[in-house]
Amino acid sequence: MRKDEEFAKQAFDQFLATKGISDRLWLEGNEPPDYFLVINNQRYAAEITTITERIDTPRKTVSRRTIDKSGEAFVRDVETTATKEGILNGTYYISFPFVQRDYYAVQKSLKLALLDFISRSKNDSEFPHTPIKIDGVQYCAIQKTQRPGSRIIVGINPSNAKWAGDAAIEACDLLLSSISEKEIKLAHINEQKILIILNEYPYIDSVAFYKSCLTTASQVENFHTIFLIDLEKTDNDCVLCTKNPNWQ
What pTM, to 2 d.p., does this model score? Predict the structure, then answer.
């Protein structure tokens, strides 16, 4: 079970509690679905998915989540090596302002450059923001802070800003594509289906906007309920559509 699946389950369960539904039981699913949810002896298939920004890199188009995980793994590797070499003394912050650049191609050189910076600054209480370049191209920046402890904090900046119209088109496309994919994946399941969507798209958080995306979407008819979870604003969690008017 992934942490995000458990988080989504808990958020929807809390929503049901606010609707006065006390007779509810969550069971592990068959992958698919992620869970079965029993409410008043009625069993539903509950599936969880995520909508997140897609970013073009030199190798392929990937999700923002993939980039975040890759950056985190890389920094943890630098931190582990620096600790083993006895050079990590203080707290460092590494930022990646250019997520579209091909980090994989320079990963080894980038790691060595970061370790060199950490080694040279280990006796300093702090060290200012310093760009790290490979062959004249900046891939990240590092600074030493006065925060307690010996660790490395990673920050992965959002991709380039988007025009409002472009963001709206992309957000709708991501939402509808996600629903269509789950519609196909769950086609063989007989139970009524609940789709819980974690919204990680950074540019649009309007509930009304996401509801408007579904006004002409035929695929929503195959779901009993579609529930949207905003990872940053809990008061934005909402039912996008449902066949139970008491859940609105």
Answer: 0.70
